[in-house]
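README: folding subset

This subset contains proteins for which both the sequence and a predicted structure token string are available. Records are stored as plain text. Below is the entry for Phospholipid-transporting ATPase (1193 residues), shown exactly as it appears on disk.
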Amino acid sequence: MGSLLSQLGLECGGKDVREKERHLRANDRELNLSYKYADNAIKTSKYNIFTFLPLNLFEQFQRLANAYFLFLLCLQSIPEVSSLPWYTTVVPLVLVLSMTMAKDSSDDMNRHRCDKQVNNRKVEILIGGELQSEKWMDVQVGDIIKLENNQFVTADLLLLSSSEPLNLVYIETAELDGETNLKVKQALTVTGKLEDSIEKLANFNGEVRCEPPNNRLDKFTGTLTLNGETYSLDNERILLRGCTLRNTQWCFGLVVFGGPDTKLMQNCGRTTFKRTSIDRLMNVLVLNIFGFLMIMCLILAIGNGIWEYQEGSKFAAFLPKGVNAPFSAFLTFWSYVIILNTVVPISLYISVEIIRLGNSFYINWDRKMYYPKSDTPAEARTTTLNEELGQIKYIFSDKTGTLTQNIMTFNKCSINGKSYGELLDFSGQRVEINEKTEKVDFSWNNLADPKFCFHDNSLVEEVREGNPEVQAFFRLLALCHTVMPEEKKEGELYYQAQSPDEGALVTAARNFGFVFRSRTPERITVVEMGELVTYELLAVLDFNNVRKRMSVIVRSPEGKLTLYCKGADTIIFERLNPSCSNLTEVTTEHLNEFAGEGLRTLALAYKDIDPEYMEDWKLRHHEANTAMDEREEKLDALYEEIEKGLQLLGSTAVEDKLQDGVPQTIEQLSKADIKIWVLTGDKQETAENIGYSCNMLRDEMNEVFIVSANTAEEVRKELQTARRKMTPDGTEEPTVKKSRSGLFCLLKTETVADEPVNGEYAMVINGHSLAFALEKDMEMELLRTACMCQTVICCRVTPLQKAQVVELVKKYKQAVTLAVGDGANDVSMIKAAHIGVGISGQEGMQAVLSSDYSFAQFRYLQRLLLVHGRWSYLRMCKFLRYFFYKNFTFTFVHFWYGFFCGFSAQTVYDEWFITLYNLVYTALPVLSLSLLDQDVNDWWSFQYPQLYTPGQLNQYFSKRAFVYTVLHSGYSSLVLFFIPWAAMYDTVRDDGKEIVDYQSFALLAQTCLLIAVSIQLGLDTHYWTAVNQFFLWGSLSVYFAVIFTMYSNGMFLTLISSFPFIGTARNSLNQPNVWLTMLLTSILCVLPVVAYRFLRILLWPTINDKVRYKVRQDKVLPPAPRRVQARRTSTRRSGYAFSHAQGYGDLVTSGKFLRRTPKSRPALFSQTDSPLAQTQPQSYRTISEWEEPPLSP
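--- output ---
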């Protein structure tokens, strides 16, 4: 019942108010238990042995279809109403409930097993002055526990002391964010003195006041009161449950949050449930089907009342109570509700889940989406969105790590107005750097990284000659960072960096003679040109999304105080001393050159600090750092105060290459009429440059609009100017279509119509302008202008803005969106989109953990959409059309029969046929169609990406398609009822005996029905396999085997009431006219379908028809010539940005390396046997919609 109580908002602990502040005292269980804090036991399971059956059934009957069939079962228990035996409803209902129950039971048993394993882990707890080994579940808030190396952290702990110098501990947070690089935590000095003394720890009585339980992994606010002194607590003092202790012999911690209150468990809440457009359409259709069912039942009930009034009176003498026509009509209405229930078959929902599960396995098993370098396969992390992959209209992509590799190398730099990294020949011309270019010799540096590569010897000469500016430049790189060093062997350094940028910069400083050797929370040790130097670390001014910079304040061995700062050039330049104006101009020119080559750039500056000012600043910093309210705002103000009057040192340029196959993939997706928007933190010039490298921006485009205004009115003006250029004759006001959708049409929607544009356009907008454009009064202008463009690139955007852009398109375009990213800053965008795709990259696993699908390379996205997505959508639509067809046809025959049986609610089929029709006779053939069918194979799907567009337009299944299916079913049911009825009317056998009886007619009608729907299935199948053949012919064989068995003498004598059709099969199926009737009905059912499809292909061929015709013609594919893509020179400026992840040292710079490509678009996709499997280009062909292929007569 705990799960049920939690759903009702109650807690077993008895707390009826939300916790506002946590207060605890170490080693005082009595006090801590009085607050009724949660213990450390966790429970992720939903059921127990007593609640499983009632709760699971309660959940299942919340589904409309299950509740409907339970209602039918109740009706069938009323003898006056029931016209079908109980098993016709019980068998399918129990089967569906049992399958779902078995799945839920298996999942919950696994959760129970995991809970038990975790709760029973052992940990040492300090109880009664001695360490005792206890289970995790017995740990209480306020306990002091001991952890040893490689142990999991038991609960959220306040770190007290450790075995490492200065009370450091190293932890791995892979369970929290997927990152395997080590992070450092440090205990307060006052608690570090406790060391591992059991006596001191047992006497420790510090009181902690802190924030209540929450899900913020990167934030903790609290204070520790000990001996009358108050100490500030932040995230750097806390060890979170789920972390692993590494490289630390032991540590002691005070339990602050336990079990469900830990930040790990607080983050295990349910994510937003995503539903496909087909799901939403099915809900509406099922509701309409219910209404249609009621109308049919009402018509038949009225007919029964009229018949009873006119004809039933003639039989009144034979009835004991006479005839009551209105009451008879009332009972008949409910009887027909039971009989006609097959219009909403319960097997529909279970079949849909099986199809989705199967198509998810295809994604997981696809070897062409497997990345061997990192041993990463594609993974469908959800099974409910597969068909939505075939309807994507907008893709929102991150840049760094998604389009690029996010593997950084130090390439160039600018120091004191001089640029380094270029090679010039004797005439002063630039020399192209390649693999054969001579590298700088770093043999003079014993600690240099042998993998580091640089080509400009002049920089090494400047360093070794003692140039003070150059040495200060690399000293800053060696000190201003949050990298953690590991030295497994003497001289073999390995850096654990929170971002690839920092790792590249620290490695560069290492090779140029400034080797970052070790660090503690209070000191940084650097080997400067062979001399060991230790700096005292006074403060770290952390990075966040607003600051876009980080600084450190250090004291040199000579006692000199210096602030070193690195960050975005626009941010740094605003804080420079006016004396740097000339140097700033030169450095800006160098930044433009670096950005034009697609390099990620960063500006570096420093400042000498007066000791007296520093003492005063430290006092105010301590006050702000111990404040419980507005701590971050107060610290930001202090940081802003001290980071002024900086002296510019120069800038760095780091290279980040594109991933393999990115330009080709984007070209393919564009040809599929998918619009691609890039949402990146890079500066505007970098974003523009990456657009050209990826083929999103092309020189042959009519125009690329740049929106970079600084005021709201200027932004509006730029957007309007761009829109008017694209549509000179367009209206000033957008065309907004208001409608209602959802169940009962309660959801109001507004759709902005697409506006026709002649030519191709693109738009680049920066984050500052985007902030104005996303405001309520301007968002429509942004949407209109952006959606007219083939490509939109938003630069300098924050994670929140990424999600806002996605939500804007979802709200007004009613189109299916997909977001793809690889970092923590992409999580909000991934969750906001209809489908989220995570790239397993260099920035941890947070994006993957929040995604619906994941893989290792961006190029796999085209296979996910153009192959798996399109096939899944096509299969699901075929399944739904065929399923509704066969069931409406089945039901309509009942409806027509009602007019010939006095509206008596008699069934036209054998009762066992009604039971087995959906579960046995037609189940496997339609599943094979839905799991195996494909109009063309994957190779042709790549060659003609226009095949993807019908999914975007909902052409395969919509309300209109559903109406056509119902009309088709109506026609087929007329044929299937009246042709057998006419054929059997006054008919005799060869021996002169009559066969005009109910049972013979029922057998003929149901056999004609099964053959007709099987033929229709064959017509719908494009891709025949042995499995399809086996299931189709096997199902027909099973049908005939079943009827001969059930209609036998033996079955009749066993259960007379259940098998009344004795001898019907052998007496009817030996007559030629019966088989001729089956043949005639089959021909009449399929003839209109064949004729319509022939005329449609002949007169109005679709893109699918043309490609399938081309497939038949091109049995042998001609080879396509390969072209090598040349590098492209560009003067466009690029730059850097930060990855938006906040926390201690979570400083990430962003930018990209761009390959130079020719201005004309290269030929794409030269032919291979497996497209993109080896990242080779593929040949690409175009078929226009109006072009008609020759048709064979």
